[in-house]
Each structure stands twice: as C-alpha cells, then as structure tokens.
Amino acid sequence: METLRALIADDEEHLRDYLEGQLKTAWPELKVVAKAANGIDALRLIGEEAPDVVFLDIRMPGMTGLDVAARLVADATPPHIVFVTAFDQYAVEAFEHSAVDYLLKPASLERLDKTVAKLKAALRAKEPAAAGITAATLQALLAQLGGAAQAVAAPATAPAPAPTLQWIRASQGDQTRLISVDEVIYFQSNDKYTSVFLADGESLIRTPISKLREQLDEQKFWQIHRSVIVAAHHVAGTRQDFRGRLMVQLKGREEQLVVSRNYVDLFRQM
C-alpha cells in the first residue's frame, strides 16, 4: 500500500508539533514529510516533497494559507487542502458554507477524525484534490472571513481585547508538553522559571508570572501573591495560620498557598 504524505504549515512550532502528534493517532498511515513556519517555505516544500495532503494555517507571515492554496489549486495536480484556523465561531461559519475543509486550533481528535474520514474517502474515490476549490472560492472565503472579523470587532475607539491564553508549552523532565490552561491548578514563579502545577505533576515554563497575568482570564485565574496565580475552580477555601496569614486551601491537595496583603481583598466574601 502506497504511503500517503502530508505537510503541515503553521507559524507556531508547538502547534505544528501538536497537529503532527494528533495525526499520528488519528491517521497512523499518513507520514508527515515536512513542516513549514510560513507560506513561502510551505510552497517550496510542497514543490520538493509533493505531499498528498497539506494542512495550512490561515494566518502566516509572508503568505497566508489562502494565498498558498490559491497557488496550489492553479496546478494540474494539487494536493488535498485542509485549513487550520484560530478564528472564532463567527468566522468558522464561513468555512462551514464553503467547499473547503478546516480544523479549529488546537485540533481535537474527534474533529480530526472527521477530516481524516473525508480525506480517505476522497482519496479512495480518486476525487480531484481541488474539487470545489477554485481561486474564486478562496477569494469569497477571504471576504467572508474579513466580514466576520468586522462583525465581532470592538468599536474603533476601543482596542480589541487581547485573546486569553489557552495552551502552554512546558518542559517536564526531558519531554515537552502542550498543556491546556484548564489543566492548571496553579502557577508559582521561581528564580529562572515558572512552575506549572498539574494533577499529574509539575512542569516548567520560562514565561514570568507578570506576563502570564496579562494573558490569563482573570475570572478563571486569581493572583494571590506576586509569585503565585491560582485557578479559581481549584480553590476550596481559606484559613488563617498561626502567624495570621491568609492561606488558600486547594481541592484534593495538601499544600496551602499564602495570600499576600495586596490580594487579601479578593477573599473578603469567602
């Protein structure tokens, strides 16, 4: 049986690696032969490696995924194209009503399985890779995406809020993990690193607490000390120790976290 080949293009390395890992589970027969960090490199590598399937991030420096796709569909034998996007649900509706397939970052196995099934069916039927995808299709999709972005944009006088952090790339021993922020119990800064405490252990990141505070959803993560941020849904309650310090008690864990005076007001109603 002929080995099928794929290329992944995304300007974020950890998301390239994450999608490759998900594909190994969802489609083990597929071989990722190349990964690109931008659209220009993606085009070059596609020319060199001739993959059967390409996964294209929409937003990349140099050339967007749509720009790359427009070049590919002009060829006589283009690869099958799947777009990968971080756009919100409004923009995803544009994909739902177009002829192209897409994955929403970070791709879940359940959603990836559907894409894999669609690609396998097309490959078995020997359908043209560019069926239904033309330069006009891509231009219409780009216009829809632009309209969706405008529909949810903040007024011109108010800057759009920065997106909250959803995933963390962390070191654990000699391995690197991609961690959802929903798994985090608390963050604690050390000399050179920030520790990320999870139910199954501790990982390390280089991002300082001050930067994390700017990127985390303040409704879900509470800073209780200059060196500690805790996930609100893991807080069981508070108590005072023998020195009069307020201590946060965590659900299902023995350690307790000190609340500094600057953050005591956060717990006044508890």
The arrangement of helices and strands along the chain is EHEHEHEHEHHEEEEEHEEEEE
Summarize the amount of helix as a percent range. Answer: 25-40%
Q: Give the termini distance in whole angstroms.
A: 63 Å
Proportion of residues in extended strands: 25-35%
Average pLDDT reading? 82
What Rg, in angstroms, do the CA atoms define?
A: 23 Å
Categorize the overall geometry.
elongated
Tally of distinct domains:
2
Would you tell me which CATH topology of the largest domain applies?
Answer: Rossmann fold
Q: Please identify, by name, the CATH architecture of the largest domain.
A: 3-Layer(aba) Sandwich
Largest sheet data: 5 strands, parallel
How does this structure look, described?
The protein has 270 residues and is an alpha/beta fold. It folds into 2 domains: 4-151, 3-Layer(aba) Sandwich (Rossmann fold); 167-267, OB fold (Dihydrolipoamide Acetyltransferase, E2P), CATH 2.40.50. It is built from 7 helices and 15 strands. The protein has helices at 13-26, 39-49, 65-73, 89-96, 109-124, 135-151, 209-215; strands at 4-9, 30-36, 53-57, 80-85, 101-104, 167-172, 175-180, 184-189, 194-198, 201-205, 221-225, 228-231, 235-240, 246-250, 256-259. Strands 2-1-3-4-5 form a 5-stranded parallel beta sheet, sandwiched between helices. It has a 5-stranded antiparallel beta sheet with strand order 10-9-8-12-11, with no helix packed on it. The chain has a 3-stranded antiparallel beta sheet with strand order 13-14-15, with no helix packed on it. The longest helix has 17 residues, at 135-151. The chain is elongated. The N and C termini lie far apart (63 Å). Mean pLDDT is 82; it is low at 148-160.
